[in-house]
Design a protein that fits this description.
Layout lengths: L1 H11 L2 H70 L10 H10 L14 H8 L3
Length: about 130
Amino acid sequence: MLFGKRKALLEHTSIRYTIFIYFTVSALAASLFLGISLYSRMAAQVSDTVIGENQILIDQVNRSVENYLRTIMKLSDSLYYGVIKNADLSGENINDKFTLLYDNNKDCVEKSPCFPGTARCWRQCLRPE
């Protein structure tokens, strides 16, 4: 019954109308396919770009942290091997050496524990009684 109605409908329509319908449907299908294809390609490309940019940012942060840690380790080594190991804690005033190292590396050092003005504080930090 359904096929009979369609057949009767197609028999009464003109060829111009039938071509118009098929052309419109095929153009809509092609446009839809092209739109979905372009969207998926662009989404993948944007995703790859974001992943690449994030990796570059992570690498920059990693290099920055490594440089900071390397600088702090050098400062710690110079403080330990250059000042503390060579100092006589019973009589020598090492506060000036600590202050010099601190002043030269202020941009790397956030806070320094035991940095009031007396050498006695350094002795307490280095060798608690």
